[in-house]
Amino acid sequence: MLTLLFALFVQNSGELLESLQGGGRTYSHCLRLPIDSHGTILLLSPAPPHSKLPLTQAFQPVLRNLAKAIHLCRDSAQLTQDLVSDRDQARADLAAALQRSERERAFLRKLNDTIPDLIWLKDPQGIYLACNPPFERLYGAKEAEIIGKNDYDFVDHELADFFRENDRVAAAAGKPSTNEEWLTFAADGYHGLFETTKVPMLAADGQLIGVLGIAHDITERKAAEERIYQLAHHDPLTGLINRFSLQERLKQALLSVQREGKQLAVMFIDQDHFKDINDTLGHHVGDSLLVEIASRLRACVRESDIVARLGGDEFVVVLTDVGAGIDAAPVARKILEALGQLYTINGKVLHSSASMGISISPNDGDEVETLMKHADTAMYHAKGNGRNNYQFFTKAMTVAAAERMELERGLREALIIAQFELHYQAKVCTHNNHVCGVEALARWRHPERGVIPPLTFIPLAEETGLIEALGEWVLEEACRQLAAWRTEGIKIESVAVNLSAHQLRSPMLVERVGAIMRKHNIKENELELEVTESVAMGNPEMAIGQLSALRQLGVKLAIDDFGTGYSSLAYLKLLPIQTLKIDRTFVKDIESDENGAAICAATIALAHNLGLEVVAEGVETEAQRQFLAEHKSDYLQGFLFSHPLPAAEATAFLMEHD
C-alpha cells in the first residue's frame, strides 16, 4: 500500500505548517528533520499510515537519499555562486594588472628616453632591434632608421668588427662582459671614452636571442682619476715625478740591473744659493727657476732615465744603465754645464750653479735608501769643495757625513748653552797707528774639540738656517761689550759686526738692530755693519732698501771682501755705505805681485773718488803697511797689529793702546 509523502526543504518549518493548516489541509503525519543550520526537511503524509513501522523508521533510507540530494543541490548552487564571484574578481584583477602594466610601460618608456647612457638591443646576427635617444645621437639617425640594420651600415669595417667581436665575447661567456671603448658621435662630433657592458639575452632553453648593450660615458671620471694620479705621483710645479714615484721607479730599475748584471747611477742635485734667490726675488721667481731647471735636466738625459724633484731645490737623476760607474761623469758634467748657464726669469738675468753627488749600484749599495743616502752625502761633499762640481761617493764620506751631522747637532746645542764667544781684532788708523775700532768675530769653544774655526761652523750655520740666531747673538754681545768698554773709560770709535745674507733679507732686521742699539745706548756711527760684496749685489734693490733703513738708525755701513765678487758700480754708488774693505787675498801679494798691488791701489782710488773710506784687511808685514799708507788707505787691520782676542785680552790691549 502506497503512502503519499511530501518532502519539503524549508528554512522556517513553523511558518510553513501554520500556512498549510490555515489552508484547510490536514496531515496525519508530519516529521521535521533538521538538515543543517540552513534549513529543515518536512515529511508530510495526508492519509493514515498503514505501515506498522514508525514513520521515521520506515522512511529512513528515503530520508538519507533525500538529504544527499538536497546537499548536492545546495553545493551546486554555491559553486555556481562562487564561480560567478571568481569571474568578477578575475575581471577586476585583470583590469588592475593591465593598468599596472601600462604604468610600468610608461615608466620604462620615460626611463629609456631620459637616461643619459646609450642602450640598444641586437639579435644574434647583430641586427638592431631597439635603441634609446642617446644611442640615436651616436649614429646620427632615428630609432626607426637604425632598427633592422647593423654596425656596418653606420661605421667603418674596422670599428664594426670591433663591436661585433665584443658582442661575440659576451655571447660566448653567457654573462655580462665590460670593456672600455672610445666612441665618436656622428650627430655632433663628440669623442669620449665609454664603459660598455654587453649582456647576453637567453631564452628558457638557454638559446641566445639577443645582446643588450649599455654604454656609460666615463671621460670626465677618467680625466679626474688621471689628475688624482698625477697629483699623487708627480710634482705639481715641474711635472717631474715626486719622491714617492722615484722610490718605486728606482726600485724597479734596481731589480732590472741586478737581473741583467748591469749598473745604474743615482745623482743627487742641489741648486747652489737657491734660497738667496727665492728669498730676495720672491717665490714666483724661484718657482720659475725650478721649472727651467727641470726642463734642462730632462734635456740632458735619455728617455729611459729617471728625473725627479724631491722638494725645494733638490732633484734626483737616475741613469738606468751605465757600463761602468765612471761613465756617469760625462753626464754629470753635461748637467752641471746646463744648470750653470744664465737664466732669464721675468726679465731678470740670474746666475745659478749646482752641486751633485753620485752613487753607483751595486758598488755603493743595492737598495733605494742606501743609494739615495750615499748620493746625498756625496752632494754635501761637493758643496764643501766649493760648489758647482760633482763628487762620487766614497766610504770616507760616510765618516765625514756623520761628523757633519754631529757638528750640526752640537751647533744647535751651542746656541742654547752659550758656547760661543766673541773675539775682537783691532782696526788701526793709518796715519797715526791709533786703535780706532774693533771687529767682532764669533768663535765656538767646544767642550771636547776646543775652539772650532769660523770657516768650519759659519757655512754650516748658513746651510741650516742657524746663522740668523747666531748673528743676532753676535750683534747683541758686541753692543753690550762696547757699552761695557765705555763704562770702563775705554774710548774706541766703533765696533764692526758682520751681517749675513739671511739677516739682510729678514724683514725684522731694522727693528731688531734699533732695539739693541737703544738697549745699550749705542750712538750714531758707533755700530758698523759689514755686508759682503756678493750679498749686497745678489739683490741690489733689496739691499739698498734695508741698508738705507739701517743708515737712518745711525748705523755705519761697509762692503766687506771687496773685489772677490761681482759688483755693479752703478748699484755700488747707490748703496748708502761709508766704507770699502779690501780683501786679504789682494793685500797679501802686494810685495811680490804687481797685479795685486795695482788692484789695491785702484780700489783705494775708486773708493776715495766715491767718497768712501778704505780698510785694508790681512796686513801682516811692514812692507804691506807702508804700501797701503803710501796709497792712503784710511784704516789697516791684520796680524801686524793684533790677532783676534777674547774680550778680557782685548780689553787689556785697548787699555794699553789708549
Write structural notes for this entry.
The structure is a single chain. With 658 residues, the chain is of the alpha/beta class. The chain folds into four domains: 6-81, no CATH class; 115-222, Beta-Lactamase (2-Layer Sandwich), CATH 3.30.450; 241-393, Alpha-Beta Plaits (2-Layer Sandwich), CATH 3.30.70.270; 408-656, EAL domain (TIM Barrel). 48% of the residues lie in helices and 24% in strands. The chain has 24 helices and 25 strands. The chain has an eight-stranded mixed beta barrel, surrounded by five helices. The chain has a five-stranded antiparallel β-sheet with strand order 5-4-8-7-6, sandwiched between helices. A five-stranded mixed β-sheet has the order 10-11-9-14-15, with helices on both faces. Helix 20 links the parallel strand 21 (556-562) and strand 22 (579-582). Helix 9 packs antiparallel against helix 10 and helix 10 (283-300) packs antiparallel against helix 11 (328-339). It is elongated and about 155 Å long. Residues 1-10 and 49-53 have low confidence and may be disordered.
